[in-house]
């Protein structure tokens, strides 16, 4: 294995107006960038304007660009908000839109938020990862709308989450490095 730094995408799992995933993603990226042990980048689903799966012939440029982006990453950190005890429709659509080979044999961490820390959305996401052959790591920061957001919308994370974010990043990098040898 080379000493090349891994490329890890921090995927924002929402596209709706007024979302807070960009703030959460930037917070994770700031923590990650201080480490200096990988290349981290924000990957915003909204930038790809993915059509809903099955409504088109699959040749739209956004689908090709999305698949290429996922293919060029070694691992992922998903910023996941809980919608009705699950992930957003936009995230599920994005996961299904990239071809299976783009996802396979990579690792992912999850940072979730919601009324119960987004735990139910994270659990649904782990099931999808299994089908895509993405290894989800155990470290899992859960952010509460009640304690980590002012008025449920302004992100003000507690420093208590820093050890868990770093643990998750340690695991994502370790697993991503090992899984890269399988691709």
Short description:
By secondary structure, the protein is α/β, with parallel strands linked by helices.
Q: Which descriptors apply to this entry?
A:
6 helices; six-stranded parallel β-sheet; 183 residues; 8 strands; two-stranded antiparallel sheet; Rossmann fold
How would you portray this structure in words?
The chain has a single domain (6-180), classed as Rossmann fold. The two termini are 12 Å apart. The protein has helices spanning 21-35, 61-71, 89-97, 100-103, 119-132, 162-180, and strands at residues 6-12, 38-44, 75-81, 106-114, 134-136, 142-144, 149-150, 154-155. It has 6 helices and 8 strands; from the N terminus they run βαβαβααβαββββα. The strands form 2 sheets. Strands 1, 2, 3, 4, 5 and 6 form a 6-stranded parallel beta sheet that branches. It has a two-stranded antiparallel ribbon with strand order 7-8. It has 183 residues and is α/β, with parallel strands linked by helices. The longest helix is centred in the last third of the chain and has 19 residues, at 162-180.
């Amino acid at each position: 294995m080379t000493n090349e730094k891994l490329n890890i995408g921090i995927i924002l799992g929402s596209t709706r107006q007024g979302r807070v995933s960009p703030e959460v993603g930037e917070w994770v990226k700031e923590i990650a960038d201080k480490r200096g042990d990988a290349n981290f980048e924000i990957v915003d689903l909204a930038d790809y304007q993915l059509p809903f799966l099955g409504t088109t012939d699959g040749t739209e440029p956004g689908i090709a660009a999305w698949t290429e982006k996922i293919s060029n990453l070694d691992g992922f950190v998903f910023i996941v908000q809980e919608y009705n005890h699950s992930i957003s429709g936009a995230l599920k659509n994005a996961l299904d839109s990239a071809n299976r080979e783009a996802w396979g044999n990579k690792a992912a961490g999850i940072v979730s938020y919601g009324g119960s820390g987004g735990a139910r959305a994270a659990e649904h996401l782990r099931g999808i990862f299994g089908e895509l052959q993405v290894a989800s790591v155990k470290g899992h920061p859960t952010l509460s709308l009640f304690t980590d957001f002012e008025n449920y919308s302004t992100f003000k994370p507690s420093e208590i989450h820093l050890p868990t974010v770093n643990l998750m990043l340690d695991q994502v990098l370790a697993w991503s490095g090992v899984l890269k040898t399988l691709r």
